[in-house]
Amino acid sequence: MRSRNTRRGMAAAAALVSTGLVLVGCASSDSGGGKAASGTWPGEGKAECKGLEQLADFGDLTGQTVSVYTSIVAPEDKPHIDSWKLFTTCTGATPKYEGSKEFETQLKVRVQAGNPPDIAYVPQPGLLQTLVATGKVVEAPSQVADNVDNWFGEDWKSYGSVDGKFYAAPLGANVKSFVWYSPKMFADNGWEIPKTWDDMLALSDKIAATGIKPWCAGIESGEATGWPATDWLEDVLLRSAGPDVYDQWVAHDIPFNDPQVATALDDVGNILKNDKYVNGGIGDVSSIATTAFQDGGLPILDGKCAMHRQASFYAANWPEGTDVSENGDVFAFYLPPMGSEFGNPVLGGGEFVAAFSDDTAVQAFQTYLSTDVWANEKAKATPNGGWVSANKGLDINNLSSPIDKLSGEILQDPDAVFRFDGSDMMPGEVGAGSFWKEMTNWITGESTQDALDNIEASWPSS
């Protein structure tokens, strides 16, 4: 699943006032299929615009605006807005930010009403596919395609493509394959960070023998309740069956209730439905369903729980003043593999930049966001951490927090086997519907087979 600022943190709808502005341009040109550039590039001769020479293709955009709609709301919108200052310096155009907790629902409403923003940060490939099907999303210009080819892996470009056409460049990313823990608790008890899945289970038994519950978890998230359990299944399926089977499952080339998926969910159940293992500091197994995902790992700080599987973005949920570092109050380790056959699988997510206009300023902004320059600007504009990108031009040293740096290293590791969050790529009826619901039912007593059968039955026929 994605970050708390994207689909999983959102409940459904409320009205929203649009700030989108339609930009007026001229005839079409070869600079990406949009409107012709005119005037002298404002970045000409400016040292701070070095590396952004592509923007010269779009000419002088002084006075133009680009409306940008996202799910990221205050105060976390400020780093994004700050990272755009260089774009204005080098083009003269000004992006206008609009964030909403009802982003996903309202974006669809606005597109259907003919009032889309110029740019939207789309938090999952499945939603991108839905939007493309409306015919309102514009293919990315050639400059953006070139940047993605240069700075991102092929998988990332494929997630921004629909039916062989490239629409949306990757933006931010997150790593989901993490287990949060207390370095001090581990050191005081002589516990070692596990390197394999079997080591992790052995450690869980060792911790349970001390009277401490080794695991704590929470999957409550309003109308999105259940999503953290979907991440568990996806992470384990990648490890037990491998990336090829994972891809087939996500695409429904094999049924949702395939025996390999059932095995993976039982492996999850060996932890999450094990009374000896959970739910440290909170309650019994059933308490997982009623514990807010933001609170799921907090018992670690009280020594009542040893481990909590959750994504890199969980760093923002620790109380203010918590030292999140290798030797601090809490940190995270990579969720270990089940064997060597499938390498080091990494489950993750991210956002994509979709455009509903091919105006020159819009294409210029898309281009800027796809550069290594912007990735580093965004990193430097996020001094409190909580952001990372899979852009290979990102200097890890510009990331401010230890967990962001660890995430960046994992994303840039050429040996890592990265796969996007599966539910984010499934049809909405499944990925944001039956999958969440049935994982919640499963936690509260439903069998593995019944849960998977019910999800399979909900898969749309076309």
Q: Which of globular, elongated, flat, extended, rod-shaped describes the shape?
A: globular
Distance between the termini: 24 Å
Discrete helix count: 16
- CATH T-level topology of the largest domain: D-Maltodextrin-Binding Protein, domain 2
Percentage of residues in DSSP E strands: 5-15%
Order of helices and strands: EHHEHEHHHEEEEHHEHHHEEEHHHEHH
Architecture of the largest domain in CATH?
A: 3-Layer(aba) Sandwich
The total of beta strands comes to 12
**The top level CATH class name of the largest domain:** Alpha Beta
**Mean of residue pLDDT?**
91
Structural class designation: alpha/beta
Can you give a write-up of this model?
There is one protein chain. This protein has helices at residues 78-83, 85-91, 103-112, 125-132, 142-151, 154-159, 183-189, 197-208, 227-240, 243-250, 259-272, 360-369, 372-380, 402-412, 428-443, 448-458; strands at 65-70, 94-99, 119-122, 161-162, 165-166, 169-175, 178-181, 213-215, 305-309, 331-334, 344-355, 416-420. The protein is an alpha/beta fold and 462 residues long. A hairpin with a 2-residue loop joins strand 4 and strand 5. Helix 9 packs across helix 15 (428-443) and helix 15 packs antiparallel against helix 16 (448-458). The longest helix has 16 residues, at 428-443. It is globular.
Write the layout of secondary structure elements.
Elements (H helix, E strand, L loop, with lengths): L64 E6 L7 H6 L1 H7 L2 E6 L3 H10 L6 E4 L2 H8 L9 H10 L2 H6 L1 E2 L2 E2 L2 E7 L2 E4 L1 H7 L7 H12 L4 E3 L11 H14 L2 H8 L8 H14 L32 E5 L21 E4 L9 E12 L4 H10 L2 H9 L21 H11 L3 E5 L7 H16 L4 H11 L4
Parallel strand pairs: 1-2, 1-3, 8-9, 11-12
Antiparallel strand pairs: 3-11, 4-5, 6-11, 7-9, 7-10
Helix pairs in contact: 9-11, 9-15, 15-16
Pfam family, one: SBP_bac_1
InterPro entries: Bact_solute-bd_prot1, SBP
Protein name: ABC transporter substrate-binding protein
